[in-house]
Design goal:
- The protein is of the alpha+beta class.
- Helices cover 18% and strands 44% of the residues.
- The protein has 4 helices and 20 strands.
- It has a 5-stranded mixed β-sheet with strand order 2-9-8-4-6, with no helix packed on it. A 4-stranded antiparallel β-sheet has the order 1-3-7-5, with no helix packed on it.
- Strand 10 and strand 11 form a beta hairpin.
- The longest helix has 43 residues.
Length: 306
């Protein structure tokens, strides 16, 4: 009898586990189906509501080696384009909400926005300011949510984590499979400039703080630099957007010949202290996802600094 009772209990336990797994699957699958149907409906109405840093799945970003002293600027670009051809033909309004950890103050340039049909783009800035003394390894977080208000509803989210560390140049790549392009974002957390050409009382190799740098003449500023980034990549995989303002200011452009045609495969840019720059790259294979950092810790673009 005892053996039979134990056997029945095991059977009941197995049945309960199967039921719980089935219920979880139904809930997850139901959400997937609901989202798929909703997105299909929105596309059929030419309602395109996207962002370079926010998504329906709640994008997660981490910036290492933040100084923990100076303000950190995040620019979030919004758009109403499905691709280079399809775009919304009407204005799309949206509301912005956000939360943040108690060790910073967070200011957003606006709480409402509109993606106008004539440009199909808009943006807003988030400025993160520490309100207490932070040490190496400390983290701050900001979560952003954007909700379209008209004519249809859609929510995009993102979580940003800043980690205090050593000052240096870092980079990340934002991408997703089937996106025609990826975005390379470089952040310089250095709080000073280096003198590369002597002037006044400054010699080559001297360091100048930001306030001093800002007081220099334009000619003197050109004799200084904060971070120099050398970018290299395989044009068989990605092609740089040569209309991008960051690329236009580049130098030491490297090229290679593929099937008799000349392609850019490297260049150098300068990034001011405590600032960021972004460059768009078009993907040869749109089905690839070149997000970086990733599990393999491999990047389709190499960024080295000095």
């Amino acid at each position: 009898m005892k053996i039979r009772k134990i056997y029945k209990r095991k059977q009941l336990t197995i049945i309960l586990l199967i039921l719980l797994c089935s219920i979880s699957f139904v809930i997850i699958f139901g959400r997937y189906v609901t989202n798929t149907i909703n997105n299909f409906f929105l596309r059929s109405k030419e309602f395109y509501f996207y962002s370079d840093k926010l998504s329906e799945e709640n994008s997660v970003y981490q910036v290492d080696n933040w100084s923990g002293v100076d303000d950190y600027l995040i620019t979030i670009n919004m758009n109403s384009r499905e691709n280079n051809i399809e775009a919304a033909t009407y204005d799309i309004g949206y509301d912005i909400s956000y939360t943040y950890s108690d060790n910073v103050i967070c200011n957003v340039s606006k709480t409402k926005g509109t993606i106008y049909a004539d440009t199909n783009s808009d943006f807003f800035n988030i400025i993160i300011t520490p309100n207490t003394q932070l040490s190496t390894g400390d983290k701050v977080t900001v979560e952003v949510e954007v909700n379209s208000t008209a004519p249809y509803k859609k929510t995009l989210k993102g979580k940003f984590t800043l980690v205090v560390g050593e000052e240096k140049l870092s980079y990340q790549i934002t991408d997703k499979a089937r996106n025609p392009y990826m975005l390379l974002s470089m952040t310089n957390t250095l709080t000073y400039y280096n003198v590369r050409e002597a002037f006044g009382s400054y010699n080559i190799g001297d360091k100048i703080d930001i306030d001093t740098y800002l007081s220099l003449t334009d000619d003197e500023k050109r004799k200084c630099y904060s971070a120099i980034a050398t970018i290299s990549f395989d044009p068989k995989k990605v092609l740089v957007d040569i209309t991008n303002s960051t690329y236009i200011d580049s130098y030491d452009i490297q090229t290679t010949i593929i099937d008799g045609k000349t392609y850019i495969n490297g260049f150098t840019i300068e990034i001011d202290a405590i600032s960021s720059k972004e460059i768009r790259f078009y993907k040869v294979d749109v089905n690839k996802d070149y997000t970086y950092p990733n599990n393999d810790n491999k990047s389709v673009v190499t960024v080295s600094s000095q």
